[in-house]
């Protein structure tokens, strides 16, 4: 498997239309994805002292965090509006290989910062709601 460029790991937000058209959230310098799973133990006396887990059970979710420089793009404005309204929206993560992960996400955190003599930056956190489709 070839190494992939981090700059090709993109976060995109939908436009609210049907079919959804995605726009890249501009200015991001770092993007991180975590796939989370919760185990369901089915250990019994017959387990021989070893923990056993039930395959396919439990709660799964995807968390995304990103940080970048504010550019004022339409996609950034949409993310901010979603954060203020607490609205679920369509998001897509795309990778250099062409693979994508698409789902409804909630903006759980949006922070802005800026130095007197520097650029305005932001960090954001997203949590999935419902199934995540990988293609």
CATH topology type: Factor Xa Inhibitor
Percent range for β-strand residues = over 45%
Helix content: under 10%
User: Biggest sheet: strands side by side, in what order?
Assistant: 2-1-5-6-7-4-3
What features would you highlight for this structure?
single chain, 135 residues, mainly beta, Factor Xa Inhibitor
Would you kindly provide a written description of the structure presented here, covering whatever features stand out?
The chain has 135 residues and is mainly beta. The chain has one domain: Factor Xa Inhibitor. It is 9% helix and 47% strand. The chain has one helix at 74-85; strands at 10-14, 22-24, 28-37, 60-69, 89-94, 100-114, 120-134. Strands 2-1-5-6-7-4-3 form a seven-stranded antiparallel sheet, with helices on one face. A hairpin with a 5-residue loop joins β6 and β7 (120-134). The longest helix is centred in the middle third of the chain and has 12 residues, at 74-85. The protein is elongated. The relative contact order is 0.23.
């Amino acid at each position: 498997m070839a190494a992939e460029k981090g700059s090709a790991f993109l976060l995109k937000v939908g436009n609210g239309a049907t079919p959804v058209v995605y726009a890249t959230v501009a200015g991001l310098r770092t993007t991180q994805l975590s796939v989370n799973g919760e185990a369901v133990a089915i250990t019994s006396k017959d387990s021989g002292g070893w923990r056993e887990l039930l395959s396919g059970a439990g709660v799964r979710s995807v968390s995304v965090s990103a940080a970048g420089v504010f550019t004022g793009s339409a996609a950034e404005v949409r993310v901010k509006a979603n954060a203020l309204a607490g609205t679920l929206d369509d998001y897509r993560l795309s990778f250099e290989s062409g693979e994508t992960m698409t789902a409804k996400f909630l903006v759980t955190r949006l922070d802005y910062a800026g130095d007197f003599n520097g650029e305005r930056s932001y960090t954001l956190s997203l949590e999935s709601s419902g199934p995540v489709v990988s293609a």
